[in-house]
Specification:
- The structure is a single chain.
- By secondary structure, the protein is an alpha+beta fold.
- It folds into four domains: about 25-130, Endonuclease I-creI, CATH 3.10.28; about 205-270 and about 305-330, no CATH class; about 330-440, Nuclear Transport Factor 2, Chain: A (Roll), CATH 3.10.450; about 460-615, Nuclear Transport Factor 2, Chain: A (Roll).
- About 40% of the residues lie in helices and about 30% in strands.
- It is built from 17 helices and 25 strands.
- The strands form five sheets. Strands 9, 10, 12, 13, 14, 15, 16, 17 and 18 form a nine-stranded mixed sheet that branches. A seven-stranded mixed sheet has the order 20-21-19-25-24-23-22.
- Helix 7 packs antiparallel against helix 8 (about 155-170) and helix 8 (about 155-170) runs antiparallel to helix 9.
- The longest helix is centred in the N-terminal third of the chain and has 37 residues, at about 1-40.
């Protein structure tokens, strides 16, 4: 009690001095503000008063944005040329998308205290260009991602990143003059003209062939096959005219897609449109989303696709499709030891196909153990599952049985206006009668990234493939028990979420541009609990691995897996870099020791990887 009284006396004894100091500080602040206002040729400023510091700061920033807007309005030549009449309103909307970026590039002076506080925001005119640096860097980053995706035949990703880069370019004051250098040739590209050329080039080199079709009630399922420069695409998103309306966006994988038409529609005269705007997925980046909502979309006539003329000749089309598929599969074929006498496995898969087509799932229950049956029932109820085209099965030997690669299934989610194709991998036990595991197969490019690591044993590479496929599938099928089993009890789990609102003060935050990200370190128990809530609140979850880089630790079977991951669900989406440090010494029981997520490369240390840890 004596200590408390002494503290109270001390506080009261210094209060008058504190008050005098505050008055002195306010006077100095007001003098500083007056000096800045006299130098209009050097500074731009905004000023506001409010009941709270946050309100005053927000309004001061808005005032400053208005001043900056006036000083650089003539620089936005791209949007001026697009719409000279509506330029003023469009320009104001574009400028608002810079508000958060401006906040980190301005100085602040505060006078008074709540509930009557004044905030003065100012910036040197010579510093204005820095406001736009982060957006330029994002533009360049999108273009680089598009180029990498195009080389890997990930055409959906390439189109998405090219168009997103073009969208941000239109919102940049230097958009008409920003260039990029080709690392291989040294040639410089003027992005304002080069990006549209790349988008048109992709569409002009996409070819669509029609494969088999199957009647299902009042609808006909039509197999479609997509190639880019005669190579099956790794991914491609499209819509099609069903006779009455354009369909939901549909995803093709490893060349295969499917269209569902009314039986009365003419499947040989199908119109298709390639997707390139990806407005739904743009919500993963708040800054991009704001710009896309402000600017009118750019129409690309080249995105209108028609069936190849060879589609009118079914036998010839099927031969070309099969030839392209075999060419793709041949890139990983030397790695797998395929079963020569596979009749028994094919018969089982044919029965499973029939059960999916007829929705008579109990007819094939005898082929599954309890875990496999549970996964199969979840699988056929994951969206509205349908066989996509004619499967081309390959049966590969493993130490503990046989893997069937793969059954193409199309999944429909009408409530969320989306659908996509996944290749489902089945695992047979040694007796060839029990299927004990199912998973969504990796895309061909991702498979090649692992099978090409010839310095690792075949067993290690196969274990990595199975681990990543099971990991991806566990989130889609909401296998919370499996996910819990593969995380070590003391795992380091760093979770990131892109936030729409300002984060609370007790979180670790990074604020690149307008995107606000909260990073939290969680225990395994916390992570699994939060994941369970996420599973319950989403109709679907889908992970798309755009790139993966895998490194092996010096000894044992410890791997660092760096994945460029797109995460999509019915109420949330983000894109970023997922790092997993996984112990595969026990091939049947993988253990994740580290899981970390970053929205982008950190400017200081890049990406979290194996080098971030000591062994």
């Amino acid at each position: 009690m004596r200590i408390v009284l002494l503290l109270i006396m001390l506080i009261y004894s210094v209060s008058p001095a504190m008050a005098q100091l505050k008055k002195a500080d306010d006077k100095q602040a007001q003098e500083r503000i007056a000096q800045i206002k006299k130098q209009g040729d050097v500074y731009l400023w905004g000023e506001a008063q409010g009941k709270t510091l946050n309100v005053a700061d927000r309004d001061a920033l808005a005032d400053l944005i208005g001043q900056i807007s006036t000083s650089i309005q003539s620089d936005f030549t791209l949007i001026r040329n697009e719409d000279p009449n509506g330029y003023s309103e469009t320009y104001k909307g574009v400028i608002k998308t810079y508000s958060q970026a401006t906040l980190s590039n301005t100085e602040r002076v505060v006078v008074g205290k709540e509930p009557k506080v004044t905030v003065f925001r100012y910036i040197k005119r010579t510093e204005i260009a820095k406001i736009f640096v982060s957006r330029k860097n994002k533009i360049i980053g999108f273009v680089e991602s598009a180029i990498r995706a195009e080389k890997k035949l990930q055409m959906a990703d390439a189109l998405r990143y090219y168009y997103w880069a073009q969208t941000l370019l239109r919102s940049h004051p230097d958009g008409a003059t920003i260039k990029m250098t080709n690392e291989e040739s040294g040639e410089q590209y003027l992005l304002a003209s080069w990006i549209p050329e790349q988008i048109n080039n992709i569409f002009n080199n996409i070819r669509v062939m029609k494969g088999d079709s199957k009647v299902d009630g009042n609808f006909r399922q039509v197999e479609l096959f997509f190639t880019y420069k005669k190579e099956p695409v790794s991914n491609f998103d499209f819509t099609y005219w069903d006779g009455q309306d354009w369909s939901n966006i549909t995803s093709a994988k490893d060349g295969r897609g499917v269209a569902e038409l009314p039986t009365i529609a003419d499947e040989n005269k199908m119109d298709l449109k390639g997707e390139y705007i990806f407005v739904g997925e743009a919500t993963i980046d708040t800054e991009l989303k704001d710009v896309m909502e402000t600017l009118e979309p750019v129409p690309y006539k080249s995105s209108n696709l028609q069936l190849s003329s060879v589609s009118a000749k079914p036998k010839q089309a099927q031969k070309e499709i099969q030839k392209a598929q075999e060419k793709t599969a041949a890139r990983t074929e030397p790695f797998f030891d395929y079963v020569k006498d596979d009749a028994e496995y094919k018969n089982i898969m044919a029965e499973i196909e029939r059960s999916i087509v007829n929705r008579s799932y109990d007819d094939v229950r005898q082929y599954f153990d309890s875990e496999g049956w549970d996964m199969f029932t979840k699988l056929v109820n994951y969206g509205r599952a349908r066989i996509c085209g004619t499967p081309n099965y390959r049966f590969a030997k493993t130490d503990d049985g046989v893997i069937c690669r793969s059954m193409p299934l199309a999944f429909y989610f009408p409530n969320n206006n989306c659908s996509f194709v996944e290749d489902v991998v089945f695992e047979f036990a040694p007796d060839a009668k029990i299927v004990h595991s199912l998973s969504f197969g990796l895309a061909q490019t991702a498979l090649e990234g692992i099978t090409g690591k010839t310095q690792w044993s075949e067993a290690s590479r196969l274990t990595l493939i199975r681990f990543l496929e099971n990991y991806k599938t566990a989130y889609a099928l909401k296998r919370i028990d499996y996910i819990s089993s593969i995380f070590a009890d003391d795992a380091l789990i760093i979770v990131g979420n892109v936030l729409k609102k300002q984060p609370v003060q007790d979180a670790i935050t990074i604020e690149p541009d307008k995107q606000v990200v909260r990073y939290t370190k969680q225990t395994k128990e916390q992570y699994i609990k939060n994941l369970s809530v996420c599973f319950q609140s989403n109709e679907f979850i889908n992970l798309r691995f755009a790139d993966n880089e895998i490194r092996k630790a010096g000894s044992g079977e410890i791997y660092g897996i760096q994945i460029k991951q797109d995460y999509f669900s019915s109420n949330y989406g983000d894109t970023g870099y997922l790092f997993l440090m996984v112990d595969l010494n026990d091939r049947e029981r993988p253990v994740i020791h580290v899981r970390a997520w970053q929205p982008e490369k950190d400017p200081d240390f890049g990406l979290i990887d194996l080098s971030s840890f000591t062994f």
